[in-house]
Amino acid sequence: IEARNRGLSSKTLCMESEQILPDGSRVRHYDVHSLYGWSQIRPTYEAMQEVTGERGIVISRSTFPSSGRWGGHWLGDNTAAWDQLGKSIIGMMEFSLFGISY
User: Fold this and answer.
1) Could you tell me if 26 and 20 are in contact, meaning their C-beta atoms sit under 8 angstroms apart?
2) From the CB of residue 95, how many other CB atoms can be counted at a distance below 10 Å?
3) How far apart (Å, rounded) are the C-alpha atoms in residues 89 and 101?
4) Among 17, 63, 12, 56, which residue's Cα sits nearest to residue 36?
5) What are the φ/ψ torsions at residue 33 (nearest 5 degrees)?
6) Could you say which of 32, 69, 95, 98 is the most buried, measured as most Cβ atoms within 10 Å of its Cβ?
7) pLDDT in tens, 23-78
8) Which residue did the predictor score with more confidence, 5 or 11?
């Protein structure tokens, strides 16, 4: 909130920045931004099944197309007010385009 007059770029990593993968190759942050969450959903889901022996659900804020196979996407903070309900339905419908359905 304190930096909203400076825009999103003042509080987020530049999409043109580079990250170095374990094999030493360099990639643009733009190309791998949401892959961390995607790479954590499946192992978390599988560990949960192994520990409980039952099916469960994993919710992540960072998802990528096909993440819906193992978990769901948290749509963000809301106040649980009635006016937020319409926005959450729109968000769920949008994420179903990426294979993350509810």
Assistant:
1) yes
2) 19
3) 11
4) 63
5) -50, -50
6) 95
7) 999 998 888 877 878 888 889 999 999 999 998 888 888 887 788 888 888 877 66
8) 5
Which of the pair, 14 or 97, is modelled with greater confidence? 97
DSSP state of 101: -
Residue 48 to residue 50: CA distance in whole angstroms: 5
CA distance 49 to 57: 10
Encoded tokens for 11: 């509080």
CA 3 to mean position of chain CA atoms: 23
Antiparallel, parallel or unpaired: β 18-20 and 26-28: antiparallel
Fill in the amino acid letter for 25: S
Q: What is the pLDDT of residue 25?
A: 92
